[in-house]
Every structure is written in C-alpha cells, then in structure tokens.
Structure prediction request, 527 residues.
Amino acid sequence: MAAEISTAQTSSAAVDVIVMVLRRLFFSAVGLGILFALWWFGGWLLESNPATMSFADFGPFPTIDAVPYMVQSGTLLDASQASGYRLGIGLLLAIVTGIPVGILMGRSKVFRKLSNTPFQFLRMVSPLSWEPIAVIAMPTWDQAIIFLISMAAVWPVAFATAAGLAKLDRAWFKVARNLGASWWDILKEIILPAIAFDVMTGIRLALGVAWIVIVPAEFLGITSGLGYTIQDSRENLMYGDLAVTILAIGIIGFLMDGICLALIKRFSWHRN
Amino acid sequence: MSRSGVQISVQDLTHRYSSRGPVTFDQVNLESKPGEVLAIIGRSGCGKSTLLHIMAGLLAPTSGSIRLNNIEVKEPSPKWVMMFQAPHLFPWMQVSQNVGIGLKFANFAEDKIRERVEKTIKLVDLEEFAESNVQDLSGGQQQRVALARSLVMEPEMLLLDEPFSALDAFTRASLQKDVRSIAKSMGINLVIVTHSIDEAVLMADRAVIMAGSPGKIKEEIMVELPEERTAQDPEVQKIRGHLMETFRQASTATH
Prediction:
C-alpha cells in the first residue's frame, strides 16, 4: 500500500514537472512569435514606404535569405570567433582581477573604506569612454578592445564577490580556525564555495555588460568580429547580413546567459 | 580510541578586551583532572564564554596561562576543540563532508578521513544521514553533526559553549546524555559553559560558579552521581538544590 502511494506520488510529481516545462516552452514560443510578428510588421512598414524601402532587407524574410551566405562563407563563424576570443580574454581578466579585489573589499574594512568612493566613481564611467585612452595605451586594437571589456566587466564581478562575502556567517571562520584551518584552507574550503553563487551571478552580469560593450568597441580600427561585421554590412548596404549578425549576437548572448544560469544553479547551495 | 584524558591547569587568567576596557574576569584559577567533565555556571556577562574562547586558543588572555599536561594553549589546535551554541555547519556540504572538514585541514589521507568520519557519524547516530545536505536536518541533528565534527579530531579537551540551549527539551536531554557518555568512552576532558543548573548537574563531575564583574570563580561543587542520572533522581535534585542555593548566594554577594 505504502509502495503504491509512493509510486503514485512520484508519477504525479513527474507529470507536474512535464506540465511546468511545457507551459514554460509554450510561453517562450508565444513570446518569440510576438517578437517575430513585430519584426515582420516593422519590415513591412519599411518596405511599404518609398522613403525607407531600401532598408527593407531588415525584415525577417530577407534576413532568413541571407543566413545561408553568412554561414557558408564563414563570415558569421569568423566574426563570432574573433568576438568570442576578445570577450573570453576580457572576461577572464575581469574575473581574475575582480574576485581578489572583491574578497579584499569583503574582508578588509580599511580596503573597503579606501576603495568604495574611487570604485563607485570608476564604475559609473562608461566603459566605451576609455576607448581613446585604451588605443593610446595598448599596442594593438585587439588589446584595446580587451581592455574595454575588462573595464566593463570587472565591477559586477568585484561588487558581487564583496556582497557575497558580506553575507557570510562570520562564525564559519571561527569554526574553521577552531578546527586548525590555515588562511589558505579558509579561502579554498570556506570562502570560495560559500561565495561561488554570488561570484557566478556577478560573472553573469559582467558577461551581459561585456557582450553589450564588445559590439560598439569593434566598430573602429579592426577588421574582424561581430561589431566589425555590423559596421561593414552597413557601409556596404547589406542590411540582410546586418540583421543576421544582430540575430547571431542575440542568440549567442542568450546561450551564454543560459550557461551562466545553469552554473549559478549548480553552485547555489541556498534553499529556496 | 581510549585514553584517560589530560590535566587542565588554568593559572591566574585575566582578560580585558582592550587596554582601557573593563576587566572581563580576573585571576581565574582552575584545575581539571584527566577525563573530568567540568561545568562552568554563571550569569550572562560574567565572562564564562570569553574564558572558554581563551581555553580554545581563539582569544589571547591579557595575562595568565592555560596548560594541558604542560602544553600551553596559545592558538587553536585539533587537540582542544570548541563546540558553539549554534552548530554553524557549512551549508554547501553534506553531513560527512562537514564532519571530515577538520581532518582535511589537518591534511589527513582521503581513506583515513573516510574511515574516521564513518566511525564518528555512527557514534552520534547519524549513519542514515551521512550523504544528506545539512540544511535538510533538524536542529538537534545539526548539533549532532557539529559534535561529530569536533569528536572526529579526537581532541584531548572538548569545550562546549551552551551547545544545547537552542534545542527542545527532549533533544537536549538526549544530547546531554550522549555527549557525556561519548566523552567518557573516548577519554576526553569536557568543559561546559552553561547557565542551566540542570545541565550542569546532569553532565558534570564538578561544577564551578562564576559570578561578578569582573568575573571570578566563587564556588566549586563536586557532582558525585552515578553515570545514569535523570532530572527526577532524588540525588540529582539534592545536588541541584545545593547548587542553586550556592549560585544564588554567590550571585547576590556580588550585587
């Protein structure tokens, strides 16, 4: 009898999960459908007005027509790889810098007091406004773009790390010391696992900011990347190619955000 | 593990939190025999928790010393471990990982950690929860994990800072009994700080009363009772009454 009840409860839970996933998929599909309809309507408006007719390739159907060329010629892949490389290095530098800085902010009152005003000031400076300085300071355009991405991405990582540390139960450090932990043990076994969720949330925010910054950052000085492809397509009046690139930026960003969300779930130890 | 415990000597211990701050306690002297369970009773603010933190090496005394068989306590060590009022478990870890964390800090080999953790989890009756996340356990079970985390280090002295005060009466009674019997079987000296006279009588071999500001040891009372003791035993009630009266006199004398 108990086994039957348990089996029935398991089946009921599985049905609930399936219903929840289907409902979520349904709403996503409907939302995308509405977006596609608005896009089509915008394209139709452009096409129906003689003054804007030349921009009609922004519409969904010319864009879909442009996809095979963009894929088969390797334009999309090359551009994505170039942007991905810059994003990866820039984000890595932001993480490598942001986490220790955030830990210092969270652990040292003096450092927190010293750094709060200058960091808040720097955080509010648009990352793109560093571009002239980056171009002068860095030997290559690639490095200048990587610098801009790092400048954009470092603050979410640092502040999220510091916020994660501020939430930690101070007694954990006392317990760890009581059990003979060294400072390295405390960092490795207590601090990093405890703040992993907040750090990943910061990385997710940083990725979003960096992905937004990379496109305008690639508008100047270089001949590769998604930003460059947009600029190049615009100058050559290839609006279909431009729209495909925008579509690719959205899809790649969406996938990267999904990976970050999965990692956040993986590292989260919080109940509810 | 079967040992007979250590001789604990607290000599002329004085503490103040800052050079201009008030003295927390003054010239405290204590001796505890090997394997003894010593209870320190006192009102809030008399410095008993601070005393325990110094005994664990988590705080430095202003003057005086603590020795375990002539080894001076100067910093935390797996040989003297403290169990706190709240379990303070690491919530991202399973029960077994929480229990074994101290051994990991001490660089024990993986198989040795597994062996000791299994044995200790069994000792505190948590075998079926070994792989559970600690957030899924009740308050009493979490405190058992904290106890196992301390016991797994096989300390010579276990310091308990009101560890059962947040638990319900049944869980508290069961843990009081278990902690005493485990400590006796492992030859661990127990030092319990509590403001519960019942707890002191049920767990201790000897109780000291701390009172005043700055705190001082006012009285020492032997708790000569059989191992099996309950709050209803006439002998327990008699010592409880005596302890209560002494505590009242010590407290009023300092007010």
User: Anything to note?
Assistant: Chain A touches chain B through 21 residues (CB under 8 Å). Chain A has a mean pLDDT of 91. Residues 2-48 of chain A form the longest helix (47 residues).
